[in-house]
Amino acid sequence: MSKTRIQAIRGMNDVLPEESPAWHFLEAQFHAVVKRFGYREIRFPVLEQTQLFKRSIGEVTDIVEKEMYSFDDRNGDNLSLRPEGTAGCVRAADQHGLLYNQQQRLWYQGPMFRHERPQKGRYRQFHQFGVEAFGMPGPDIDAELIQISATLWQALGLAESVSLELNNIGSAGDRNAYGQALTAFLEAHASELDDDARRRMHSNPMRVLDSKNEAVQSVLADAPALADFVSQESCEHFEALLQLLQSLGIEYSINPKLVRGLDYYNNCVFEWTTDQLGAQSAVCGGGRYDGLVAQLGGRPTVAAGFAMGVERLVLMLETLERVPESYRRPVDVYVLTASEGLSSQALRLAEAIRAQCPGRGIVCHCGGGKYSSQVKRAFAAGASLAVVLEAAGDNAPLSVKIRQLAGSDDVWTGELSTIPAEVARLLGA
Ligand code: HAM
After folding, report:
1. Model pTM?
2. 90 inside domain
3. Best mutation site among 61, 68, 84 for ligand 1, i.e. most ligand atoms within 8 A of its Cβ?
4. 241 lines ligand 1 (CB under 6 A)
């Protein structure tokens, strides 16, 4: 009886070797940029108490209502795979006393899980790079966060392909007042709404604004505007941020519809979007979340941050061909043998070449086989040089050739001891 092959879970991707250079390039640039801005890494689990996400992201959000992978573990504790990183980062930083009366600049990376309908750029397991800054109330830190993302786009060669949208969603108090006005408006139009909107108009009226239903959207055309409820203080913070962005030469546009899908934000929120990815246009999003630490039981600590979608950025890097060639070639030198019984010499020679050429990929052929099939493997590995060991007869010294594989078929011949230096010279190492 034939056994069916087990497949990966829908929306959860394998990253294959040919795709990993783009990931490595992105990771290297992200790590370099956050280091240059003085941020430190924090790691926290992929599983947390479900309550953590309910209390931070909001009970009446798509993520918590429809998208979390939640289950009872063997102790009966209700746990969820993290759908995003901010909640876990705040939980971890607060639990370990990193927040109160301190300033922290932190970053993280890793897989997140949301049970969304998979399509290009939208997956059920996806990865984020995130940055969170704690204890800094002014607009300068908001500007710094945006500057970090802008610096990364430059480093990746994506600056021309992304644009920045900002909005001011006001303080928690402003949003409360606005929520009440919105509820009153929606109640007056209840008969024109769908079930989802009618349910949310009391529990979380602002989420009705995200409705995909055209009938609901046409009702919303006359709804009160959030901008009319934003306090003077919040407006001043936002204006100061805009000034800072102008002084940094960062272009932006204001999008009054940008409210973000998570409840913890206040004041300025932002999103970087692209027209390169079709429907899933957001590559990075964030904003201030001054109330979240206290909401999760910590002492009040202001905060702001953002996260970017790694898969979406990888797609952009591939489409726009931005991954440098040096990331694509894992193998520079392939050591092979034209006579039998030379394995130990070959392994030792490969090791000597590695010592001479740090950072280069040196493969020693394993598994035997004819000379011609070994050469085929050297080409398939993408090596630019093949180093060929050949026995020259009884008691004669080994003959070693270096064959150029890419560009020309030049050959150099030398003694075993001189080969590593010669390879380094040819590679420009
Ligand atoms: P978010 O906007 O939900 O924010 O996610 C950030 C980014 O993750 C998105 O812009 C997108 O690029 C990527 N992303 C989200 N869902 C998916 C998906 N299903 N498949 C592929 N990529 C996806 C947050 O998560 C906040 N925690 C950001 C933040 C940090 N705010 C403050 N600090």
Report:
1. 0.93
2. yes
3. 84
4. no
